[in-house]
């Protein structure tokens, strides 16, 4: 092996290591002698993104890579320069400059870059997607074209965000929520709006939010309100990749987190959990940390100022 090949191989391994540290576990292979790769990270508050330059490389996640890394998020992919091809499930999309797509980190995916390409990859926590798109099925590996007003505004928002030197937690979380809300019409299933099952799902989730603090909230109560069997309720949520009990727990935790962010006085954490339907304070603390990565007390300190 000559020295130029050795240098290229070393550069490839170093670049792939950067990708794995910044974006989660991936594997890759070069597609020719002109491989090029560079990565710049940005993190401000809740926002974590990478600007990745690459050429002649195939980047992918199999079930092995998915299983060995945290997959509780999505990637919002912004094509800044060049072209790329993304695949997930049965969907395949070609991206050009200004196009946007979404990839689910919990499922295998495939990305190919033949020519010089620059992408901005933004990590979107699953709870942010659930808050913004919970009423609709999320569409991955589809193109939001650069010519659409949604793409123009979203590109401007995220590029400006990546240039901010310091961004607080409140501002960064508001930015993520604004971005998902902006992208919602393009990411939500187009046919679902007119579907009877979708209307029933909307009714169920609205009922859950209205009674989220009630300890007696359960699948039987929800099914009776919607007018379907409990088994039918389970199937309806399963089609969205959701479990009813898990969904209720996550919504309660989201409301708890919102209360902690906006609290004007320091409430006992056990009382807070109880107010949103958690009768066991130890379970509440464990569940909260599992969803947000920190305990309720640490989360409150983050927003104390």
UniProtKB/TrEMBL annotation:
Any Pfam family: HTH_18
Keyword Magnesium in annotation = no
Extract the InterPro entries matched here.
AraC-bd_2, AraC_XylS_family_regulators, Homeodomain-like_sf, HTH_AraC, Tscrpt_reg_AraC-type_HTH
- Which keywords does UniProt give here? DNA-binding, Transcription, Transcription regulation
**Stretches assigned to the HTH araC/xylS-type domain:** 202-302
* Molecular function via GO: DNA-binding transcription factor activity; sequence-specific DNA binding
Gene3D superfamilies under this entry?
Answer: Homeodomain-like
Question: Which function does this protein serve?
Answer: Regulatory protein of the TOL plasmid xyl operons. XylS activates the xylXYZLTEGFJQKIH operon required for the degradation of toluene, m-xylene and p-xylene.
* UniProt name for this protein: Transcriptional regulator FeaR
Q: Which organism's genome codes for this protein? A: Pseudomonas nicosulfuronedens
């Amino acid at each position: 092996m000559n020295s130029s090949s050795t240098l290229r191989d070393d550069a490839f391994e170093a670049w792939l290591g950067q990708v794995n540290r910044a974006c989660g576990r991936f594997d890759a292979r070069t597609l020719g002698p002109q491989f090029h790769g560079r990565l710049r990270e940005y993190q401000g508050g809740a926002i974590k993104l990478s600007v990745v330059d690459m050429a002649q490389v195939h980047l992918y996640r199999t079930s092995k890579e998915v299983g060995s890394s945290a997959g509780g998020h999505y990637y919002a992919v912004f094509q800044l320069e060049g072209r790329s091809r993304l695949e997930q499930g049965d969907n395949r999309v070609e991206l050009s400059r200004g196009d946007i797509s979404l990839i689910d980190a919990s499922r295998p995916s495939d990305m190919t870059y033949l020519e010089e390409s620059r992408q901005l990859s933004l990590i979107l926590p699953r709870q942010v997607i659930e808050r913004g798109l919970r009423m609709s099925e999320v569409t991955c590996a589809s193109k939001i074209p650069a010519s659409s007003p949604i793409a123009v505004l979203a590109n401007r928002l995220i590029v400006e965000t990546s240039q901010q030197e310091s961004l607080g937690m409140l501002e960064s979380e508001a930015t993520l929520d604004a971005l998902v809300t902006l992208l919602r019409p393009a990411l939500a299933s187009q046919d679902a709006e007119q579907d009877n099952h979708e209307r029933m799902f909307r009714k169920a989730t609205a009922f859950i939010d209205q009674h989220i603090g009630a300890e007696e909230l359960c699948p039987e109560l929800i099914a009776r309100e919607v007018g379907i069997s409990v088994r039918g309720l389970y199937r309806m949520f399963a089609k969205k990749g959701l479990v009813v009990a898990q969904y209720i727990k996550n919504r309660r935790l989201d409301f708890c987190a919102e209360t902690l962010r906006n609290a004007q006085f320091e409430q006992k954490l056990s009382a807070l959990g109880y107010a949103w339907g958690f009768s066991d304070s130890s379970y509440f603390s464990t569940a909260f940390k599992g969803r947000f990565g920190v305990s309720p007390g640490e989360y409150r300190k983050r927003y104390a100022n």
